[in-house]
Amino acid sequence: MSSAENPVSRDDFDRYMVPNYAPVDFIPVRGQGSRVIDQSGRELIDFAGGIAVNSLGHAHPLLVQALTEQAGKLWHVSNVFTNEPALRLAKKLVEATFAERVFFANSGAEANEAAFKLARRFAAERFGADKYEIIAASESFHGRTLFTVNVGGQPKYSDGFGPKIAGIRHVPFNDIAALKEAISAKTCAVVLEPVQGEGGVLPAQRDYLQAARELCDQHQALLVFDEVQSGMGRCGELFAYMHYGVTPDILTSAKSLGAGFPIGAMLTKAEIAGHLKVGTHGTTYGGNPLACAVALKTLDIINTPEVLSGIKAKHQQFKARLQQMAEQYRIFSEIRGMGLLIGAQLTADWKGRARDLVKAAAEDGLMLLQAGPDVLRFTPSLIIPDADIDEGLARLEKTLSRQD
Asked: How far is CA 78 from CA 98, 101, 257, 271, in A?
């Protein structure tokens, strides 16, 4: 039965779906590059990028080719067996980073779940059962599983699901003194996002991450960087830790890694990885050939001087225009972020209106995000054409000009 014979509408979401999302009124049906077509045939410019996922836009021909070629060979064999795309991808990630070992999952939450479990097991086996505390940052976000949502520092996401997981502490982001006071011999890991995404697009200060590294070394704790949103070129380097010059013990990646195809990865050193022995952790779909074939091609495209330098240039293009709008419309108090992970902080007069602006921008043909109630978030394709940036920002300006 074709889609024409079985039409669906936005109303069907409210009729059939669990109401944990509140999608906008239109339904995208096709995309090409940084342009998206909805059911009515209307064209929109995509500054949302599937929440920092569509790193190479929509329907990139080389990704379509990689997916379809692998689909004709092998889809799934489980981790009872290994497969060639997973091995090739793991090898390239190791060659491109600090890591020596890789674990593949299906999402950022799963990658973080693996990282947190590994950190606790490593500490328990090396130092004893009392070394299990995890320190994370307030307003952080690490996923929606019960473990990861508790490590995340936003009670609005973790409240209401029964007793909290014990041994998790939260400290203010970018506060060295608070981190120093919280860390102890019981700490097994400090978990940080180099750039807080959901928390408002807040980059870490270099001295803060350096202090975190030093404190972890002093207390024999692991430093875990959640680069689910900041990694894979999003911040202008392959991973944001490279920008800061601070190397973690464990790094997690997802979102842009598969450019839209679900995949997550945990990267670490061999000595640490050895504590996840056979049977201690696993996944049915993680590392499947389809996901790894797409991610391998994505990595090949992004990890080039041309693309990474282009991301930095596009950041400046966004920032200059957004600052002009800030001055003209008195709507943004700060433009911040790195690469193509950009946040525009709303002024006090616009407090709480980020979602309203996202909906209004959609009416003007622009797909946009928020990062909390007071920040507009821009996470477009890493190779978005300059002309699409200009046109998208012109549509945003139209949105701003008609607000009261």
From this structure: 27, 19, 20, 25
- Tokens matching residue 104: 């593949």
> Residue 70, annotated ligand binder?
no
- State the CATH class of domain 74-302: alpha beta
Q: Is the pTM of this model over 0.85?
A: yes
Where in the chain are the domains? 10-59+305-401, 74-302
pLDDT tens digits, 106-139: 999 999 999 999 999 999 999 999 999 999 999 9
In degrees and rounded to multiples of 5, residue 357 shows phi and psi of -70, -35
Which H or E run includes 329? helix 305-329
Quote the Cα angle for 147-145-89, to 5°: 100
141 annotated as ligand-binding: yes
Quick one: what percent of the chain has pLDDT higher than 70? 99
Residue position matching structure tokens 């709008």: 325
283 among annotated binding-site residues: yes
Is residue 1's pLDDT more than 50? no
How many angstroms separate the CA atoms of 160 and 146, rounded? 11
CB half-sphere exposure, 224, CA atoms < 13 A: 31
Q: How far apart are the first and last CA of the chain?
A: 46
**Residue pair 82/401 in contact by the 8 Å Cβ criterion:** no
Tell me: is residue 254 an annotated ligand-binding position.
no
- What pLDDT, on a 0 to 100 scale, did the predictor assign at position 6? 81
227 annotated as belonging to a binding site for a ligand: yes
CATH code of the region 10-59+305-401: 3.90.1150.10
- Predicted confidence (pLDDT) at residue 3 exceeds the cutoff of 80: no
| Secondary structure of residue 253 in the 3-state scheme | strand
Give the containing element (helix H, strand E) for 203: strand 202-203
248-290 per-position pLDDT tens digit:
999 999 999 999 999 999 999 999 999 999 999 999 999 999 9
Is 226 annotated among the ligand-binding residues? Answer: yes
Q: What percent of the chain has pLDDT over 90?
A: 97
